[in-house]
């Protein structure tokens, strides 16, 4: 695609539809699906392969290049040692976002907070199963986790003390709405080298409409004031903004600009596919609009990067890094595989989105991890077991998507995902030709 050209979303969606389960051609970039291997083709080779895809002779055409496209194969990837925990320290929230996957922070049950006893027990179990010299990650989630500030501080202190005794490295992260942050919190997060994700949906008008406080007041100005001490410490925290995209805020370009102006160096977009309230989920009419917006932002990011300038849009950078690494996926994330969530009562689930959801129940701190449930869950969710995934060229890049969303909403976004990844493959070819050094820095 020529510099600056932006193919219509409909064209990208059409181009991304599977023509062969084991390979995909995006311009002159060839993806061999099962290996997640990418090759740059000469124009004559790309034309030959495009014709071969149309005529059903792609396998023979590949052989002329000295390549083959292996079909989907079973992998050994499955349940392994748990090395990451999400502590749902607060099952309550001070905001009233209508689309909240956690049903207002309570996950469909009574509000509650984790005790220090439960948090310590979860951490002790994680560290006891980790060999000396290993590494673990602990995430603090909600609801709004800073409702339970005292538990967070105690958990971090406990984890550091116990981990140090066994030479285990421990990393911390937190996802917050940002409304309760203080100067002391910013100092604490920086001192402990947290990765901090702030949930924001855009500038003042969009944020106040979609993410109001419980009493109905706007939240943007409150968050902007609270974030200032943290934004000033971005040399000590990994700070990013996460925007949930609904039919009400499809104009992500304005959101990226507004959140970049607020001081964020990284802004990521996450489409809303499943909502417990039925509000906010994207439908068929919205996905092409979102794809157009994503490509537009991708082009802006690409042009800035080619010019050596920073740009906060994170989605393309993430996709390009994964394409470059060539790591194949059987799953979209580590849920149930090496990562579990613990709720306020000490029950375990596949991830933080499955709190109080029987579809992702994985035991309890009292009774132990239900490894049989983990194995069963992963066996059913791997891409090799999904009919739609087995025939999709994007399977090893996508990994089948979010388990919780797929189980509750199906796969409404596959055309969108393929269109975006097809665009990203083309962008990869352009960037690696012009700025191969970017991939060294991103590794």
Automatic annotation (TrEMBL):
Keywords: Iron, Iron-sulfur, Metal-binding, S-adenosyl-L-methionine. InterPro entries: 4Fe4S-binding_SPASM_dom, Aldolase_TIM, rSAM, rSAM_sf, Sulphatase_maturase_rSAM. Coiled coil: none annotated. Residues 79-300 form the Radical SAM core domain. Its cofactor is [4Fe-4S] cluster. This is Radical SAM protein.
């Amino acid at each position: 695609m020529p510099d600056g050209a932006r193919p219509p979303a409909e064209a990208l969606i059409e181009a991304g539809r599977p023509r062969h389960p084991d390979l995909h051609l995006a311009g002159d970039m060839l993806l061999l699906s099962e290996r997640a291997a990418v090759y740059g083709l000469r124009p004559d080779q790309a034309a030959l392969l495009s014709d071969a895809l149309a005529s059903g002779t792609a396998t023979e055409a590949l052989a002329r290049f000295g390549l083959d496209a292996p079909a989907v194969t079973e992998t050994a990837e499955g349940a392994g040692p748990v090395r990451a925990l999400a502590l749902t320290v607060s099952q309550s929230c001070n905001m009233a976002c209508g689309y909240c996957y956690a049903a207002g922070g309570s996950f469909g049950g009574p509000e509650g907070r984790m005790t220090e006893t439960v948090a310590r027990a979860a951490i002790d179990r994680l560290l006891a199963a980790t060999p000396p010299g290993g590494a673990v990650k602990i995430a603090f989630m909600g609801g709004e986790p800073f409702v339970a500030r005292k538990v967070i501080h105690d958990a971090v202190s406990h984890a550091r003390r116990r981990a140090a005794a066994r030479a285990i490295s421990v990393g911390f992260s937190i996802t917050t709405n940002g409304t309760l942050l203080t100067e002391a919190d910013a100092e604490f997060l920086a001192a402990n080298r947290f990765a901090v994700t702030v949930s924001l949906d855009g500038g003042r008008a969009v944020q106040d409409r979609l993410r109001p406080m419980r009493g109905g007041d706007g939240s943007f100005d409150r968050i902007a004031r609270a974030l200032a001490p943290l934004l000033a410490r971005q040399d000590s925290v990994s700070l990013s903004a996460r925007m949930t995209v609904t039919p009400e805020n499809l104009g992500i370009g304005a959101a990226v600009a507004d959140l970049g102006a607020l001081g964020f160096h990284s802004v990521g977009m996450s489409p809303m596919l499943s909502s417990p309230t039925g509000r906010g989920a994207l439908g068929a009419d919205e996905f092409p609009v979102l794809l157009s917006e994503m490509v537009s932002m991708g082009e802006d990011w690409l042009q800035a990067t080619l010019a050596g300038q920073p740009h906060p849009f994170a989605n393309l950078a993430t996709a390009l890094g994964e394409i470059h690494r060539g790591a194949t996926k059987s799953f979209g994330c580590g849920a149930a595989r090496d990562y579990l969530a613990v709720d306020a009562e000490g029950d375990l689930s596949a991830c933080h989105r499955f709190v109080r959801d029987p579809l992702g129940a994985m035991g309890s701190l009292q009774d132990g991890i239900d490894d049989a449930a983990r194995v069963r869950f992963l066996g059913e969710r791997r891409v090799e077991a999904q009919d739609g995934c087995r025939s999709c060229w994007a399977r090893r890049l996508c990994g089948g998507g979010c388990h919780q969303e797929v189980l509750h909403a199906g796969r409404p976004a596959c055309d969108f995902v393929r269109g975006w990844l097809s665009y990203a493959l083309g962008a990869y070819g352009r960037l690696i030709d012009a700025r191969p050094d970017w991939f060294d820095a991103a590794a």
